[in-house]
Amino acid sequence: MSSLAASERFQNLIRDLRLIRNTSEQSGWPAAELDALKSAGGYRWNLPAEFQGEGRTPVEILEAYQMLGGASLVTAFILTQRNAACQRIENSRNEIARRLWLPQLADGAVTATIGISHLTTSRQHLAQPAVSAVRDPVRQGFVLNGTVPWATGAERSDLLVTGGTCPDGTQLLAAIPRREEGVEVGPSVVLLALSRSETSAFGLRNVFVSDEHVLHGPVERVMTASAGGGAGSLATSALALGAAGDSLRQCAAELLGRDAQMFLLDSLQAEYRILTSALLAGTESCSQAMSMSADELRRRANLLAIRAAQVWLGSTKGAGFVSGHPAERAVRESMFFLVWSCPQPVVDSTLQELAGVSRPISADKLHAATNM
Ligand SMILES: Cc1cc2nc3c(=O)[nH]c(=O)nc-3n(C[C@H](O)[C@H](O)[C@H](O)COP(=O)(O)OP(=O)(O)OC[C@H]3O[C@@H](n4cnc5c(N)ncnc54)[C@H](O)[C@@H]3O)c2cc1C
To answer: Choosing a second label site near 83 at 20 to 30 A (CA), which of 30, 198, 205, 260?
Structure first.
């Protein structure tokens, strides 16, 4: 089997996504893009063969994310959230849930998303957990109450993978059908960019989750226990690099014939190459193989996406500032990386850099300090 990114099917998908981006109005749920993804087998890549998946390696998936991020960021983003939900199910010891959901996810009959930020990067300063989980011994399960602040494509998903906190502080993750009684998906929010992802909050009002739907826990720090694809995962850096790469490619096309300005891209392109090799040298499970930590890679990928988009916009001058120009969209989309699934050390280090702090502390050092 050829590597995923090198396969003809994948190359055709990238071509189709670029075509859709260039020829159709960029509004509303990206149904055409997701259909193209499904036809290219995109829902099977991450799942093992025993569940009708293709069992692609983590490096193949990262490479695919990077290329998708450059061709259609919204499609790549929705896929990462869906794949994160799949990963939590696949990593579960709950065989009933795995056998029920994974084959249906592989063939696209069931769609899924994830709402876990309240256990990682959102609402961490609040005293009360965003979602409580209380054991119901009679019905053999848990009752969930609260609000999950962020879930991409929640209304479009059949299955919501989310979590709650028990009175003793332990946490659980569960796969909850969206149509379950008490699940209330809020309206999708209008965003600076990527509104097409139809991201929203959803409420859980006395939602009963039977033990058959519990994927992990209750256990302390369930996100660590169920590891993989969490905040700051390499997938987020892959998307940032994909966005950066596309800005650099389009900026180079803009600057063709303007020899005096072409050198502007040299250092950005060099940084792009360094970060791409660091990304592909590492996977979720062997990040020690990387030349930099996952946090540091994310910080640099964020800044590269932002800078590359801004250099592109600047080179297009006023024309690029007009709403609908691809460079203005790239600038808005690059801001997404400042806020999405960003671990606190990455946020702190990035803000120091943007604020012009003379000797910003690297994400590596901040990471080490917060983990002491
Ligand atoms: C477009 C988009 C899509 C997303 N999709 C998903 C998804 O599908 N699944 C998912 O799980 N997550 C998703 N997220 C969530 C994301 O990964 C982050 O968790 C989220 O962006 C963190 O922002 P927050 O406003 O919720 O953070 P919070 O930390 O909750 O901040 C909320 C507010 O509280 C303030 N605040 C923060 N800390 C303090 C403090 N110490 N004291 C006082 N005030 C404070 C902040 O300034 C802010 O105004 C998405 C986010 C975005 C923007």
So the answer is: 205
Ligand 1 mutation pick, 83, 114, 117, max ligand atoms within 8 A of CB: 117
The residue among 222, 243, 267 that closes a domain is 222
Residue 242 and residue 208 share a domain: no
Answer yes or no: is pLDDT of 164 > 80.
yes
Provide the mean pLDDT of the chain. Answer: 92
Same domain as 366, residue 242? yes
In whole angstroms, give the CA distance from residue 308 to residue 304: 6
Task: State whether 75 and 129 are in the same domain.
Answer: no
Supply the pTM of this predicted model: 0.94
Domain boundary residue among 191, 222, 253? Answer: 222
Same domain, 271 and 206: no
Query: Taking Cα atoms as reference points, which of 282, 270, 285, 279 lies closest to residue 298?
Result: 279
195 and 278 inside one domain? no
Selection from 172, 33, 46 nearest residue 105 by Cα = 46
More confident residue, 284 or 318: 318
**Residue 130 Cα to ligand 1 middle (Å):** 12
Residue from 298, 340, 344, 351 to probe ligand 1 pocket by mutation (most atoms less than 8 Å from CB): 340
Closest ligand 1 atom to 199 CA? 3
Domain identity same for 242 and 355: yes
Atom 26 of ligand 1 has which residue's CA nearest to it? 122
Determine the pLDDT at residue 338.
Answer: 96
pLDDT recorded at residue 262: 83
Distance 123 CA to ligand 1 centre (A): 7
Which residues, 6 or more positions from 10, have their beta carbon under 8 angstroms from its beta carbon? 4, 40, 64, 67
Task: State which residues form the domain around 190.
Answer: 112-222
Q: Is the pLDDT of residue 46 over 70?
A: yes
| Selection from 353, 327, 323 nearest residue 338 by Cα | 353
Q: How far is CA 144 from CA 141, 181, 186, in A?
A: 10, 11, 17
Give the count of alpha carbons within 13 A of 18, CB side only. 13
Q: What is the mean pLDDT of residues 262-276?
A: 94
Would the pLDDT of 370 be above 60? no
In a domain, 195, yes or no: yes
Taking the centre of ligand 1 as the mean of its atom positions, its distance from the CA of residue 315, in whole angstroms, is: 33
Q: Is the pLDDT of residue 285 over 70?
A: no
How much is the pLDDT for 170?
95
